[in-house]
Specification:
Blueprint (H helix, E strand, L loop, with lengths): L3 E11 L8 E11 L8 H10 L7 E4 L4 E4 L4 E8 L8 E5 L6 E6 L2 E2 L12 E4 L7 E6 L8 E9 L2 E12 L5 E5 L7 E10 L4 E5 L5 E2 L3 E6 L5 E9 L6 E7 L6 E7 L7 H44 L19 H38 L1
Parallel strand pairs: 4-12
Antiparallel strand pairs: 1-2, 3-5, 5-10, 6-7, 6-11, 7-8, 9-10, 11-12, 13-14, 14-18, 15-16, 15-19, 17-18, 19-20
Length: 372
Amino acid sequence: MRRSFVKYSAWFWHCRSPGTMESCVRITGVMETTGPSLTRYFVPMLLLQMAAPSSEQFTVTGLRGPILAPLRGIVELSCQLSPPQNAEHMEIRWFRDRYTQPVHLYNNGKDLHAETISRYVERTELLKEAIREGKVTLRILNVSVDDDGQYHCFFKDGAFDEEAITEVKVTATSLGIQILVHPPNTKGLLVECNTGGWFPQPQMEWRDSRGEIIPPTSISHSQDTEKLFHMKMTLLLKQSSHRNVTCCLRNPVTGQEERTSIVLSDQLFPWNIIWRLILGIILALLVIFIMVPSVDLHIRLQELQQNGSSVCSRVCTKDCLPNGCTVPASDPHFQLDTMWLEDITVILCVLTVFITMIISFIYFRFRGVLER
């Protein structure tokens, strides 16, 4: 048998991605045959290899930036094949953290709801109006706080797959803001701001009538069964200068701001009146305690003078003074007692003024500390 060797060389192009640089595979080799008739098997084999279908390469493009989703509303997430191509025969899978737990699954023209995780059952819909151009949209109904996070849009065609990631930000803003004013006490006036139904946790602050921030006394928060934030902020006012205060809340995602103001009356700051009343009582008691001895000393002084005059009128000798008898002969210390009483009166008056100044200084100093 005559052996012959047929050398073959063939070229074919396999366009992985139309519109881009073509990648080519060259097949060349040597076939050993036993006769010229065996060469007819090579041509059909080569044609079948060139006609075999193969998956085209593509990329997946999703929406840019975080997508805002209102609480209990609807959000739509789109993704697109590039270059555009028919995706009806492909597997399209939307999932969160795990590939095996899809939010929505589409494969070979059918929606496979049975494989969707429980909390998304009957809450998702895949819009396929533009699927022949490689574009699909996932619609999520009745958005909850648990829907916040990343979503993977996954396309698979044969052995080739690609995905894109889109981030969803769930937002909730409450219009219900309440300001409560507690009964005043010696520490000051406590004002409290309460609100609920926010997501994510809002920024919270007090502002005065000029828009300047007032440092809060405390800020606390809690979350309900729906994971919505409830906020509480307090402010202890120690002076009546902040008569108009505003409770401001701001959503950090949307930038939306809500506020409620309250005007405080002077009657809510009674400690100023209380301190004035206490100061007045102290001064009144001080005057009484000082003036009573002074009056008593003055009365005794008059009695001594009258007694001295009567003694002098009965016993008037050459020792009497020209202007009348002022020092009785029976009481040689009369003049000293009189000078002592006068000095005590002056000292008590000076002491009254001094103590009054000290009490006033302490009051205004303490008031300044409270106002700070």
